Amino acid sequence: MRRWPAIVLRGYVGLICLWLMAPIVIVVILAFSGDSFLRFPPTSLSLQWFARFFGSVQWQRSLLSSLVIGSIACVVSTTIGFFAAYAFLRAEFRGKKLMLSLMLTPVIVPSIITAIAMYYLAGKLGLIGNFVWLGLCHAVIAMPVVLLILLSALQAVDPNLERAALGLGGSRVRVFCRVVLPIALPGVMSAALFAFLASFDELLISLFLAGVRAQTLPVRIWNSLNLQIEPTIAAVSAFLIAVTTVILAADGILRYLGQRRRRAAA
Amino acid sequence: MTVATLRPALHVASRAPRDRTLLLMVPAWAMLIVMFLVPLTLFFVRTFMEFDGTTAEFIGQAQDLLFSQPYLTALGTTNWIALIVTVTVLLIGYPIAYYLTTAKGIGVRIVVLSIVLPYFTSIIVRTFSWMVLLGEHGLVNEALLAAGLIGHPLPLMYNRLGVLIGMSYVLLPYMVLTLYAAMRAIDPSLMRAASSLGATGFYAFWRVYFPLSLHGVVSGGLIVYILSIGFFITPALMGGQHDIMIAMLIDRALEVAVDWPSAALMSLTLLVVTMVLYAIYYRITDIRRLIGAR
Q: Which domain holds residue B141?
């Protein structure tokens, strides 16, 4: 008798997991459809929509835009976020909680407002459609994610190691490069992956700032959903899901390596 | 991590040249100011300054806008949708978070994957998949028709129901992760103590566990509400003509009418409400918990 609430809970959790996974799985299956329109279940399987996705010059250009902008956002936000996270944990100052809350505001302010404000400035500066500018805008959105990941990764770095290295005559910069960075490396790489993903999946800012030149994959999916749903976007969606999956798997491996390294160091 | 455990690390650092360490924050702040605060400030200040006419005219127009029927309707719709989504997501998410804190092994991994994979999948992809599922010839309708449960397709999308399903789906992970962080801090021996003192399972849960998880409920509710009132993509794609939310009204003011003052004014009200709610969230949430430490 005492076990049945646990069984009900399990069943319920299972149902919700199905609900959560169903849309993802269905899009992936649809992407491999051999039919000429979106129908589930597909009557035959083929790679035609992937062929159309990777074969189209327009989609290729969008893919390239997404990759370039994502790389800029990733490098900038990870570098800047790493220094900030380090200073956050090592420096002593008042109002840490307030400062962290302020640094997280880019993900709290409604993205439509951020997007319009950035659009306003970019319009005045003539930077609409500029890859680098859009990458920097995405870096702002990615930085809260980077900060949170790196704050928890850097907490694993024992300050005593730094003190020892300093005591042995290393300069601040040398200790930073040779001690702090190597120990925190798995966390830094995770942060970089999620920063890239934040930019790769971002829609609203790109929608306003991309112009015609820098249309990213999400922007093209949006345009397609608003006009006429073409089956190619199932393949594009499956591609985006695959990128997310690869990044999550890489993060899992990095976490495992980080733990093993910490255990070896201890 | 608590303040007490953070302190030793800070103490060591204070003996080092700490002023220079703090300089490492300069790039982050420079970027935040130049790329985020400056555009926001400029957008509001310049838009209002570019307004032709006297201050009285401006206030008059502002009042006309903020008391206009479309704005008031959107305001009501936005808050109503945000409220329903918050409650839905709380009811769905609470048992999941509870399960995550109590269960072990493969089950936990499956649940974590089912939450994390959608969470990190682009919103546009998630919305697209719901559009495929809920459309007139979507999977849900086809399945119900095939089972003979309905005679003709149900309107599941391009209405309020579609918006609620889509938004709940997108926002559930935020609720589960917040609740999980709060529940993880609850000592499981308290529940055992309650039942050894004769409390039934439900009574022990309601009088011991639930009150302890309450601040997670409030934090999670606030964060979901904050994100809901600014939602744009899902309602724009899945909603009908009666589901215009504030963010869509702002977008339309710009895209259709190229009316910068109206867009700025509506943005300002939305921003102020968001920041007030965020300030409450800040007061009640231990932000260090977000870092992932206990």
A: 73-186+197-291
Judge whether B11 lies within some domain.
Answer: no
- Both tokens of B218, joined, read 């409030």
Superfamily of domain A57-265: MetI-like (1.10.3720.10)
Mean of pLDDT values over A10-23: 93
B36 Cβ under 8 Å from any chain A Cβ: yes
Give CA–CA dist A254/B55, Å, rounded: 58
- pLDDT per position as a tens digit, B202-218: 888 888 888 889 989 99
B43/A120 CB distance under 8 A: yes
Give residue B159's Cα distance to chain centre.
21
Q: H or E segment at A147?
A: helix A131-154
What's the ipTM?
0.89
How many other CB atoms sit within 10 Å of the CB of residue A90?
A: 22
Q: Is B273 on the interface with A (CB under 8 A)?
A: no
Question: Which of B12, B231, B250 has its CB closest to that of A159?
Answer: B12
Question: Rounded to two decimals, what is the model's pTM?
Answer: 0.89
Give me the CATH number covering residue B180. 1.10.3720.10
Which of B6, B12, B35 has the most A C-beta neighbours within 10 Å, making it the best mutation to test the interface with A? B35
